[in-house]
Amino acid sequence: MASDSSSSAQIVDALGTLPTGTPVSEVARRLLDLFTSGSVEPGTRLPSERQLAASLAVGRSAVREALAALEILGIVQVRPGSGTFLRGQASELLPQTLRWGLLIGERNTSELLELRSGLEIYVARIAATRADATARDTLRSHVREMRDAGDDLAAFTRADLAFHLDIAEAADNRTLHDLLHVVRSLLQVHADRAVHSLPDAEVAAVEHEAVLDALDAGDPDAAASAMAVHMVTASDRVTRLLGG
Questions:
Q1: With b meaning 16 or more CB within 10 Å and e meaning fewer, what string describes 162-200?
Q2: Distant-in-sequence, close-in-space partners of 208: CB < 8 Å, separation ≥ 6
Q3: Which of 14, 151, 164, 183 matches a 20 to 30 Å C-alpha distance to 175?
Q4: CB-CB contact of 14 with 34 (8 Å)
Q5: DSSP character for 45?
Q6: Which residue in 110, 230, 236 sits closest to 163, CA to CA?
Q7: What pTM does this model have?
């Protein structure tokens, strides 16, 4: 690993400058772009606040707040008396980076719904070829929980979420899983309230069963088609909830 002084110099050179008055979010975004490029080794000590502020041509308070936000997200670690260090490999920073990017931007719910739909459909497609018997049994148990929930819509929602998360696990693609988890978490406040009647729950249960049947058959096209149908009705429920 390069020495602290040479690493700091390389980081400062790579960052460049930002326009005067740049908000904290843009300072954090510039740092994230650098960290996820893979050019900074995990465990590297970052330049001081003073050096970063001078490099980016912003105030030290903006750098301090940006680093504090990145620490909360688990991207950097502040060690009192030692400095601030990058935590992990570029690939390990992906979930936090995605969450940060979506949270600081204008969150357009309709765009998030479209993104979730595309991800869920593709995840279902590849899960149809990768889900083993154990994974399918787990998914089947979630469908039974939906059926057994009756008028306990909170229990239904928990089983619904578990079904989708476990399909993502069965797809065996960590990047897809992380991206889908971030998008779903940003929509969860709406999803938790979207199924608010027994007829809605019944339709959703039938749609989940269709996805599971396609997985049991090992049919990627059928799985993608069944998930597409489910995403249309699920997205429509959220849109109605928001008065769209």
A1: bbbebbbbbbebeebbbbbbbbbebbeebbeebbeeeeb
A2: 142, 143, 146, 160, 163, 230
A3: 14
A4: yes
A5: B
A6: 230
A7: 0.62
Can you read off the two tokens belonging to residue 195? 């199924």
Out of 1.10.10.10, 1.10.3720.10, 3.40.50.970, 3.40.50.720, the CATH code matching 4-88 is 1.10.10.10
* 4-15 vs 24-35: helix crossing angle, rounded to 10: 120
pLDDT tens-place string over residues 64-100: 888 887 887 777 888 988 899 988 765 566 555 555 5
* Per-residue pLDDT at 73: 72
Which stretches of the chain drop beneath a pLDDT of 50? 1, 20-21, 104-106
- DSSP label at residue 119: H
DSSP string, 143-203: HHHHHHTTT-HHHHHHHHHHHHHHHHHHHT-HHHHHHHHHHHHHHHHHHHHH--SHHHHHH
Q: 106-241 architecture in CATH?
A: Up-down Bundle (1.20)
Domains in the chain: boundaries = 4-88, 106-241
* CA gyration radius, the chain: 22
- 106-241 matches 4-88 in CATH topology: no
Question: Looking at residue 190, what is its pLDDT?
Answer: 60
C-alpha distances out from residue 124 to 115, 142, 172, Å = 14, 16, 11
